[in-house]
């Protein structure tokens, strides 16, 4: 079996293996699969003078003509060198085409296949993992270690350092999709271009949605039983022009997330596991408040609070003038209930 272990992925992708001309990239993180495919294809085509050296195929078309994949891989490159084929799987089954290719692997060719999340032991994944002529690499959501390496790599390439507190803030704002994370870091580096270092102010000014951070403060303060902090965050948000019904809608979504997490805890899970298993990852600054909320609320009480917030949301939408007062009262009631336990 040639399923590549996570610790061996970088080393495996750093060289072209002539004995395994087919590379399957699959998993829930399509951005990471895309990034790895591009890098591997570029490495495979390195040194070629053919401007059309990489042949790109559509999976649905190949599914209707399985023999075409074998033909494309076996075709000699127009200007010599290695034949490089990129195949992106669509909604149709390409396993018969890949099976035919693996039965007679082409000499001097590289085929890279991008697929979605594939079940273990089935279809295309099983076919590649069980073949001596293929490599299969799963692309899962970035861990903190992956994000740290990505930040370090991109800042080093840009020739700029990043402050420790800025790094910690940035880590909490990045999600689990590699391409999205790379885009946010790139945007940050462009914003900080010409500066000696990336600072916390740079991160807060440009990465993610600043309004979402303010809304998180309101929800976290309310469910952690902090009425003063909740009122302060609410006043700041409304002072910046945020509508009361938008704020309540965000708090309702936070309540729904807490409710799902609390159900898992009451089914036998732990608070720590519920927090660490949430995707996108919870910002490190929010974790203490969310932990406090999960320990202080039951699923039943969260459901009751959510119904009250829904009623306040409807009332705020019906009366925009009184919306801020309605919203603040509902939020302070939640904070009071959390404080009383």
Automatic annotation (TrEMBL):
UniProt GO molecular function: DNA-directed DNA polymerase activity
Organism expressing this protein natively: Ancylobacter koreensis
Reaction catalysis annotation: DNA(n) + a 2'-deoxyribonucleoside 5'-triphosphate = DNA(n+1) + diphosphate
Keywords of this entry: DNA replication, DNA-directed DNA polymerase, Nucleotidyltransferase, Transferase
Entry similarity comment: Belongs to the DNA polymerase HolA subunit family.
EC number: 2.7.7.7
Protein name as it appears in the record: DNA-directed DNA polymerase
Gene: holA
UniProt enzyme class: transferase
């Amino acid at each position: 079996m040639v399923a590549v272990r996570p610790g061996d992925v970088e080393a495996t992708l750093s060289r072209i293996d002539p004995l395994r001309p087919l590379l399957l990239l699959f998993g829930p993180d399509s951005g990471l699969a895309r990034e790895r495919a591009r890098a591997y294809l570029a490495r495979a085509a390195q040194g070629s003078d053919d401007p059309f050296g990489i042949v790109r195929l559509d999976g649905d078309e190949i599914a209707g003509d399985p023999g075409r994949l074998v033909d494309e891989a076996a075709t000699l490159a127009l200007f010599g060198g290695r034949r490089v084929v990129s195949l992106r799987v669509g909604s149709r089954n390409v396993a018969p085409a890949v099976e035919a290719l693996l039965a007679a692997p082409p000499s001097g060719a590289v085929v890279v296949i991008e697929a979605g999340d594939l079940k273990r032991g089935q279809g295309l994944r099983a076919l590649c993992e069980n073949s001596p002529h293929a490599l299969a690499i799963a692309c899962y959501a970035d861990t903190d270690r992956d994000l740290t390496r990505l930040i370090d790599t991109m800042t080093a390439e840009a020739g700029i350092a990043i402050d420790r507190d800025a790094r910690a803030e940035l880590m909490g704002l990045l999600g689990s999709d590699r391409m999205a994370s790379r885009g946010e870091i790139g945007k940050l580096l462009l914003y900080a271009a010409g500066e000696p270092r990336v600072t916390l102010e740079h991160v807060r000014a440009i990465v993610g949605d600043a309004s979402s951070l303010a809304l998180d403060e309101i929800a976290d303060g309310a469910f952690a039983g902090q009425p003063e902090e909740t009122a302060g965050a609410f006043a700041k948000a409304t002072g910046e022009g945020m509508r009361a019904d938008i704020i309540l809608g965000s708090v309702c979504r936070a309540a729904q997330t807490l409710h799902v997490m609390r159900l898992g805890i009451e089914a036998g899970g732990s608070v720590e596991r519920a927090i660490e298993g949430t995707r996108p990852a919870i910002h490190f600054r929010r974790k203490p408040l969310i932990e406090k909320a999960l320990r202080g609320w039951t699923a039943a009480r969260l459901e009751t609070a959510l119904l009250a917030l829904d009623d306040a949301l409807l009332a705020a939408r019906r009366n925009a003038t009184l919306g801020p007062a309605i919203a603040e009262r509902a939020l302070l009631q939640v904070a009071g209930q959390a404080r009383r336990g």
